[in-house]
Specification:
Blueprint lengths: L1 H6 L22 H11 L5 E5 L3 E3 L6 H6 L1 H7 L26 E5 L4 E9 L2 H10 L2 H5 L6 H11 L1 H4 L2 E4 L6 E2 L19 E3 L11 H18 L2
Parallel strand pairs: 3-5, 6-7
Antiparallel strand pairs: 1-4, 2-7, 3-4
Helix pairs in contact: 2-5
């Protein structure tokens, strides 16, 4: 809330139970919740989807200056990059301009990351979300549910690929711990990174999300106090 208030952004905290997932894993609620947010805030330009197990660590950075300003985004985009690591034959476009990007994603060592991304308001965004939430994909029982479905639609729907920008993972999606398969130490949070994400903490019985979050929360409080 502090970050949103500082930059004049609205916030939306969805309730998973409000969405009919037809028996799909609860994580699928991300997609209709974004569609819901677009309905509630039709005049908003961007929607920043952030995992509940994440914290904005550098509150002075706006989405526009940090990522979405066209020239800034062009300098950040990973061009001619395999969409799904390490060796997908489908690659990001090499000629895409920053003002034509509608979806900004990161990837780690395992695949695309849907825990922190930016989507631009518009008809394309609605098409993208409706495609992603297609009942057919939900019926496939992908191992990583909406995550693997996202990788499928991005790779095999040219209309979606044409609006996609991939950026360095730590621009939007630094991790709290060293996970070798997901980027290891190179993916871990460093001072001044924008976001820290406790990826997978809720799924691992050996981790405690609250305890893992606490040192970052204490650091965040100092950052907020020091930037007032």
């Amino acid at each position: 809330m502090n970050y949103a208030d500082r930059h004049g952004y609205a916030t939306f905290f969805p309730k998973v139970g409000e969405y009919d997932l037809a028996g799909s894993p609860r994580s699928w609620a991300l997609v209709p919740s974004l569609r819901h947010a677009m309905t509630l805030y039709p005049h908003s330009t961007y929607f920043f989807a952030l995992s509940p197990h994440a914290l904005i660590m550098n509150p002075g950075l706006s989405l526009n200056s940090h990522v979405m300003a066209p020239k800034r985004l062009e300098s950040l985009m990973l061009k001619d990059k395999p969409v799904v690591p390490p060796d997908s034959v489908i690659k990001t476009f090499s000629h895409l301009k920053g003002d034509k990007v509608d979806l900004v994603l990161t990837q780690d060592g395992e695949g695309l990351c849907q825990g922190s991304f930016i989507l631009r308001q518009g008809d394309w965004a609605k098409f993208f979300l409706d495609t992603w939430f297609d009942p057919l994909y939900r019926s496939y029982n992908f191992q990583k549910a909406e995550g693997h479905a996202l990788e499928h639609v991005v790779q095999w729907h040219p209309t979606i690929l044409t609006k996609l920008a991939l950026t360095d993972q730590r621009l939007l999606n630094s991790y709290s711990i060293d996970i070798t398969s997901r980027g290891g130490k190179n993916a871990m949070y460093q001072e001044d990174d924008f976001v820290v994400r406790l990826v997978g903490c809720e799924l691992d019985s050996q981790r405690n999300c609250e305890k893992e979050m606490d040192p970052f929360y204490q650091q965040w409080k100092k950052a907020v106090a020091g930037s007032k």
